[in-house]
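Course exercise 7: structure representation. Students receive a sequence record and must write out the corresponding structure in token form. The form below is the worked example handed out in class, using 1-acyl-sn-glycerol-3-phosphate acyltransferase (267 residues). Read each field label carefully; the graders check that inputs and outputs are placed in the correct fields and that the protein name is recorded exactly as given.

STUDENT ID: A-19
EXERCISE PROTEIN: 1-acyl-sn-glycerol-3-phosphate acyltransferase
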Amino acid sequence: MLVLRSVLFNTLFYANLILRMIVLTPIYFLLPRKKAFAIPKAWARSNHWLMEKIVGTRFTIEGLENIPKTGCIFAPKHQSFWDTYALLPWIDDPVFILKRELTWIPLFGWYLMKQRMIPVDRGARGKVMVEVMRRTKIEMDNGRQLIIYPEGTRRPPGAEPAYRYGIARIYRDTQVPVVPIVLHPGLFWPRRSTLRYPGHFRVRILPAIEPGLDPDAFFARLVETLETASDQLLLDEVAANPHLPLPPTAAKRVAELKDQATATVRA
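STUDENT ANSWER:
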């Protein structure tokens, strides 16, 4: 049954994406940019509905009150394709820094460019990154919310942290709050797998880190905040969904955290 539900969901997920692009493309490109973003937001909501009805996976967002009323940077953990679109309905006017290869995909890439997403060659340095920073400041000065994954790429649940310093430079140059977000959709929608697992998980939006810190101090605080909250959420999700087959990284990290807790109690 798990395999059948997963196949059905994956089929409808991509059919939903392709059909919406084909049918709604004329409307999307005729509308002003910000109004046109209602179409991707509706697509995100429809995916949540499909996942709940077909796979049996639900989620709850905690901490919406922590989203600043002003412009900000969202800094979520990144584990799955799910978290690339999942929060769109709750963000007013998001902009992503993303790998440039995504903009080469027919239709999908055109949608990204209409929304003025910021492509980057992840292997580039110097002048390319200066241009990315220039574009980022322009978009954020126009009131948009930047979404950037501090680890740069998808990481399995419980994996060793591998943060990139680029977010500290953006924090320094934009002078806006940074909102850490922890979530473990990789337990339910694993990367490099076609299986989708039922259950219930949470997205935790943490209090913002205000602007003005030294970049090194900010970076250290962000990493500590994300990793501490992510570890706690991992334990919570495993306890709430005992049926889940844990990837090796998650099983190892859960065992380490339990051993630490046991040692603390004995001490």
